[in-house]
Every structure is written in structure tokens, then in C-alpha cells.
Write a structure and sequence with these properties.
alpha/beta, globular, Serine Threonine Protein Phosphatase 5, Tetratricopeptide repeat, Spore Coat Polysaccharide Biosynthesis Protein SpsA, Chain A, 664 residues
Length: 664
């Protein structure tokens, strides 16, 4: 390769390996248009239109059969590259802004052999909500000796360092955005299972290699297998030559994350005592120390950790893998949590609003600051329209996505009118927002308006099936069960999950006045979790007849008679139908319900109704059930209710109870 002198314009080759990436590839290739001089795309066996899409974007497409090694496939692309520099991307990545790349490369000194770029990995359900930034060498000089190694999480840095001792690899703040770890993408591609198998093979081949154990831990971590991930990290740690290994900070960080998930804060503090000496500017470790202290109720010390994280700021490092927000909006939120626990609510509110502003500035659409603000106002008895005014004054809500997020969180807090006001300025809400609004409208009996919202969800949207399920219920609430049956048959039966279809087929028959006998349905727990909110929506909408008609479904899900009555009583109570709740709960007890929660709820409702003697009898039984279960706390709802009932009876008879024990 011809040497490029500083100041000249170097040529850049994009090198990629792909397989069945027709949905992701166009965004990636569009992001480098005008940034690279050639595109080398190695296809490892696509059966979709990936090769054709690559060719249409001007790429040179090579075909290489998949042999289980990412390094082998990547090296095929490097062999074909003719540029002076190589930029490596995956199909589910994109360059955020490559306008200054050529100037950086033209000015690079001869000793600079590569650049570490920050990869912004979006995680969760939607992009730009949660992200983890990891550094990686993705831009380096095109030399024949620079080739990848390892089958999984293939590496190039070690090759550069060993073949050219003294070579410099510098940090370049050119973010690459990565969508491959979003929940839907991972589920579609079964990426975790694939990588787990490769990681397990790596540790079999290299049982004394710390990096192999680290990679295995990462795959378990992605599946929330905390014990397995922790074991892998602990197996790998002794094989670290020292703490300067590139992945060592991430290994320690994720080991600590596992300990926190397993509620072992004392061990976290012990690990971090040494780790923070080695990595004192690793912001993530300071917030993890704060998390451990909160688990120990040491709120003031935790607050100091979060303040220090804010002082350090967001991580920009060629070594540290960092969660976005640990040096800004997340740390502000955690600091607000501490202030709230310490009784300093004004300071908590200031930090929450600052967290919102910081997240907005960084275009990160996180709901936690909104939830914290709304909860704080509710705790203080302040109306949420005041909280909304604070949000609007600080954020402006000019960003449509922030406007939608604010509205959907208001819906979660039961503030339909405020949510509608926020959404009124939005011409085209997302399908997810339309569905959330439709659900809230159903809960107020506004079925026609709910149907108007679900009609905004296009057939091409992944949310359309959920919209059809919502329509099915909406038509029932509107008194049109025939339309519900039509939707079930024409739109849901073939596309919906078989278990839900098996529940709704006889349920719709009940709405039509029929008497289906489907027998017991499975999986029982999941179907119970689905049916309960449906029944609650009927009560919230005032559809008592539809609710009563649907109750035989409880038999299909295996509820015993006393369980059915108790569940119905809880639902009536939640809907504010106290007399009906009392009737149902009494029926539950008459049917043999000996559960504490049933006796307690019945007793508290009797107390609320002023039936002091009956409340005393029922709550005394609830306290006895607590004692039998070994619950000895003195201020449980049952004990406090019993005390209140006895006090009321004493007032009726004119006898003081000041000499009596408070709970017996």
C-alpha cells in the first residue's frame, strides 16, 4: 500500500460482512455516502435481498461461505480493500456524522495507525432511550499484516500493537450508532443464542484466557443470567495479566453489576475499593458504588457518589465501556432519589428538572425523570398540571418524541385530559402512542374515540395486531359484540398468539349470549395476567353487564370459587364499587377463603363503611392470620384498622381505650 503523506487526501475503504440484512443495510450504506471511496461487502450466505441492496448502493459484493468465524469473513473483506484506510461497520450500524473524517485522516501523523471510535449501542425497546457506549478500533491503516483474530468479538488492536510496536491508536469522537442490541432486533435474529454458543466454544478452546471468559459472561449478562455471568467473570479475572488489559474495566464493571442484581452490596463495596484506585475516572464505577450504598440505606454517602459522577461527566475514553447518562441525566436522577429519601424535596425537584433538560439536550428519550417528577408532585398533593407546566417551561416539548413520551407517561398516571392536551399539537402520533391513548379512552368508556385512535395504526405497523385486539374489546364495550366476533375471525385468529385466541374465542361467545364450555385453558398464569386488566377496563368503563357476562372465564383459568369471588371483590373495590366489593368478599370468605389479604380488605372496607363491630371481628381474624404466618410488625394495615375499629366502638359506648394495647 502506498504511504499517504500528511495533508494529502487518503482513500477510505468500507469493509463489511453481512447476512440477511435487507432491513438494516440501507441505513448503514446511506450513512457513509460521500465518506468512503469504496465499499467492500462480504456476504456469508444471505437468502434475502442483501447482496442486491449492497450492489445498488455501489458496493463490491463478495461471497464467502460462513465457517463459524467472524474473523475469517472480516479478513476476506480486508484482502479486497484498496484504500489507504479501512472503516469497519456492521449492517446494523451507521456513522452519525462523517463529514470531518477525511480531514482527520489527512492530518494523521505517520505513527498513528488507527483510531478508537465510540460505538453507541442502543438497548431496550426503542432507539435513543437507553444506550451503552463501547470503544472499538474501527478505523485503521490498510496494511497486509493487519488481520482479525478470534471467532467471536474479533479483535484487530492486538494485531496492530504486536506487528508495529510503538504504533499509536488514538481516540476519535466519531460515534457509530448501533441498533443490533435492541430487543426486537435481538429477538428476530436470535443473536444472543448464536453468540452464546460461540462464547462457550471459545472457553473450551482457551480455558485460561480471561477475554474468553469475559465474552461468555457478556452473553449471560444480556439474558439477565446474573449467577452464570458472575461465575464467568470470576473465572476469567485470575487470568488477567494486569488491570491495563483493554477489557479489564468492563469485566470489573459487569461483575459489580451482577453482584448488585443479586443484592450483595457489601461485596460490591469491597470490589470497588480496589477498582476505583485503578480506574478513578471511570464514572460508571462511582455510580455503581452509589447504587450499593442505596441498597444499604446510606443515602447521604450515595449522594456524594452521584455528585462525583456529575463532576467527572460522561465517559470519553478508548478503554472504558460506559452507560450513557452516568455523568449527566442519570446521575441527576439518582441524586434526586437520594435527596427525596433525605427529605430534601425542593432539591430533588431541581435535580429532576435538570435531568430532563440534560436528556432532552442529548436526544435521549428516557421516561424515568418524568416518572420521578410526577411521583414527587403526587406525594406532595400537587396537581400534575403544575408538573406539566414545569416540563413545558424547561423542555418546550418542540421535539415530537418528547411530546409523545410526556403524554404516554401522563396516561400511566391516569391523567387522560392532560395527555390529550399535550397530544393536540401533534399531527401524527406514533402507533404506540395512539394505542396507549386508545387504552386510556376505553377505561373511561369512550369506545368510539378509542376506535378512532386505533384506526390511525397502519396495517404495515408491527402494532397493528395489538390494535386489532384493542378493537375487539372496544366494539364489545360499544355494545357491538358481533363486530368483535368478526375482528376475531378475520383479523386476529390467524395472526394472534394461539393461547390468546383460545381465550377470546369462548369469551366473545359469552358476549354474544352463548354458553361455551372450553374446559381449562393454559398457560394459566399468563392468561390470568391478560384477563385481569381486560375485566378492570370493563369496570372502569362502567360496563357492568359485560363484566358480569365475562366472569365464567375465571372458571376456564382454574380459579377456585373462593378465588373467583375474592378477585371480583378486589376489582370492584379498585373501581370504587364498595357495596359490590363487600358482597363479593363476603362470598369469598363464606366459600372458605382463609387468605390474609381477603380478610384484611374486607375488614378495611367495613371500617370505611362505618360497620365497626363487623370490622373488628374481621380484622381480628386478619391479625390472627398475620400472627400465624409469623408477621409481627406493629403497624400493618390490619392492625391499624383493628385499632381504629375498637376506638370507634369505644367512642360509641363512651369508654376510653387509652389503656389498651394498640393492636390486640
Amino acid at each position: 500500500m502506498v504511504s499517504v503523506q500528511p495533508g494529502t487526501q487518503p482513500r477510505v475503504s468500507l469493509c463489511m460482512i453481512v447476512r440477511d440484512e435487507e432491513d438494516q443495510l440501507p441505513r448503514c450504506l446511506a450513512s457513509v455516502a460521500g465518506v468512503v471511496d469504496e465499499m467492500i461487502v462480504v456476504d456469508t450466505g444471505s437468502v434475502d435481498a442483501t447482496p442486491q441492496i449492497a450492489a445498488a448502493h455501489g458496493a463490491r459484493v463478495l461471497h464467502h461461505p460462513w465457517d463459524g468465524s467472524f474473523s475469517t469473513a472480516r479478513n476476506v473483506s480486508l484482502d479486497a480493500a484498496t484504500g489507504d484506510w479501512v472503516l469497519v461497520l456492521d449492517a446494523d450500524e451507521a456513522v452519525s456524522d462523517g463529514s470531518g473524517l477525511r480531514a482527520v485522516l489527512a492530518a494523521a501523523e505517520p505513527e498513528v495507525e488507527g483510531f478508537v471510535l465510540p460505538i453507541v449501542n442502543f438497548v431496550g425497546d426503542r432507539d435513543r432511550e437507553e444506550a451503552v457506549t463501547s470503544p472499538a478500533v474501527r478505523l485503521f491503516r490498510n496494511r497486509p499484516e493487519y488481520r482479525y483474530s478470534r471467532a467471536l468479538h474479533e479483535q484487530i488492536l492486538a494485531t496492530i500493537q504486536t506487528t508495529r510496536p510503538g504504533a499509536q491508536v488514538r481516540w476519535l469522537n466519531l460515534p457509530l450508532e448501533h441498533w443490533g442490541y435492541l430487543t426486537g432486533v435481538v429477538a428476530d435474529r436470535d443473536k444472543v443464542q448464536r453468540n452464546l454458543a460461540l462464547a462457550e466454544e471459545e472457553v473450551r478452546r482457551y480455558p485460561e484466557d480471561a477475554f474468553s471468559w469475559y465474552n461468555l459472561g457478556q452473553e449471560h449478562l444480556r439474558m439477565a443470567r446474573w449467577e452464570e455471568a458472575l461465575a464467568a467473570y470470576q473465572r476469567g479475572f485470575p487470568y488477567l495479566a494486569d488491570l491495563t488489559a483493554g477489557f479489564a474495566p468492563a469485566l470489573i464493571k459487569h461483575l459489580v453489576v451482577c453482584l448488585l442484581q443479586l443484592k450483595r452490596p457489601a461485596e460490591v463495596l469491597a470490589v470497588l475499593t480496589d477498582a476505583l484506585e485503578a480506574y478513578e475516572r471511570f464514572t460508571d464505577l462511582w455510580v455503581l458504588r452509589g447504587h450499593a450504598l442505596t441498597q444499604l440505606d446510606r443515602w447521604a454517602e450515595a449522594a456524594d457518589c452521584y455528585r462525583h459522577a456529575l463532576d467527572l461527566g460522561e465517559v470519553q475514553s478508548s478503554v472504558f465501556m460506559s452507560d450513557e447518562g452516568v455523568g449527566s441525566y442519570k446521575a441527576l436522577g439518582w441524586l434526586a432519589m437520594c435527596e427525596r429519601q433525605l427529605g430534601r424535596r425542593d432539591q430533588a425537584e431541581e435535580h429532576i428538572v435538570a435531568a430532563l433538560a440534560s436528556a432532552c439536550d442529548q436526544r435521549r428519550y428516557v421516561p424515568q425523570p418524568l416518572d420521578m417528577l410526577f411521583t414527587l408532585y403526587r406525594e406532595q398533593g400537587r396537581p400534575l398540571d403544575e408538573a406539566l407546566a414545569a416540563v413545558e417551561s424547561r423542555l418546550g416539548l418542540d421535539d415530537p418524541r418528547w411530546r409523545e413520551l410526556t403524554a404516554t407517561r401522563l396516561l400511566q398516571y391516569g391523567e387522560l385530559a392532560l395527555a390529550e392536551r399535550v397530544l393536540a399539537a401533534l399531527a401524527e402520533p406514533s402507533p404506540e402512542t395512539s394505542l396507549a391513548l386508545a387504552t386510556a379512552l376505553l377505561g373511561q368508556g369512550r369506545a368510539r374515540e378509542a376506535l378512532a385512535q386505533t384506526a390511525r395504526v397502519p396495517d404495515s405497523s408491527p402494532a397493528r395486531l395489538t390494535a386489532d385486539w384493542t378493537d375487539l374489546l372496544a366494539h364489545a364495550l360499544a355494545g357491538e359484540p358481533e363486530r368483535s366476533a368478526e375482528i376475531l375471525r378475520a383479523r386476529v385468529a390467524e395472526r394472534g398468539e394461539p393461547e390468546l385466541v383460545a381465550l377470546y374465542a369462548p369469551l366473545v361467545s359469552l358476549w354474544l349470549g352463548e354458553t361455551p364450555q372450553p374446559g381449562l385453558l393454559e398457560p394459566r398464569d399468563r392468561l390470568r395476567g391478560h384477563l385481569s386488566p381486560v375485566l378492570n377496563t370493563m369496570l372502569a368503563a362502567g360496563a357492568l353487564e359485560l363484566f358480569a357476562a365475562s366472569l365464567p372465564a375465571l372458571v376456564w383459568l382454574g380459579y377456585a370459587p373462593y378465588e373467583q369471588a375474592a378477585l371480583v371483590g378486589e376489582m370492584y373495590q379498585h373501581a370504587g364499587l364498595t357495596n359490590l366489593a363487600l358482597e363479593a368478599l363476603m362470598l369469598a370468605i363464606e366459600s372458605g377463603d382463609e387468605r390474609l389479604e381477603t380478610w384484611q380488605l374486607l375488614g378495611l372496607l367495613l371500617l370505611k363503611q362505618g360497620a365497626w363491630a363487623e370490622a373488628e371481628t374481621v380484622l381480628a381474624r386478619a391479625v390472627a392470620l398475620e400472627e400465624a404466618a409469623g408477621q409481627t410488625a406493629s403497624r400493618t394495615p390490619a392492625r391499624q384498622g383493628l385499632q381504629a375499629a375498637r376506638a370507634a366502638l369505644a367512642r360509641q359506648s363512651g369508654v376510653s381505650t387509652s389503656w389498651q394495647a394498640s393492636t390486640t
